Amino acid sequence: MTSQPEFLVISDNSSVLDRFNDEKNWVELYLTRPIPMGKSRQLTQLMGFMSGIHSSWAYKQLEAVVDGIIDFKVDETGQEARDLMRIRSMRKVGFDRRWHTLEIGENFEVTLEK
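-> structure tokens emitted (114 positions)
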């Protein structure tokens, strides 16, 4: 078997499927199609799901099958809003669980604050 090249697939808001479909149906779709197919095709997939929209059942089902969970949030407690990210879980690698500030450049390039 020949190795396929790896690709990056980004879906910034997969929560929209909940708008037009029964929650159980679209969760089952993700569990049986995009997630397993991405692994077998050596795709790196970043799928965004909005917090507070779905049931805890949906989040638990999706979180149980993925290799990692990255959280993003905006902290508006100070004078300026801060964009933050953290790795909540990641299989097979060590990682830092702390929240990190993101810097957004003029060309919208995003980097971690040093």
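The beta strands are 7-11, 43-47, 68-75, 82-90, 100-104, 110-112.
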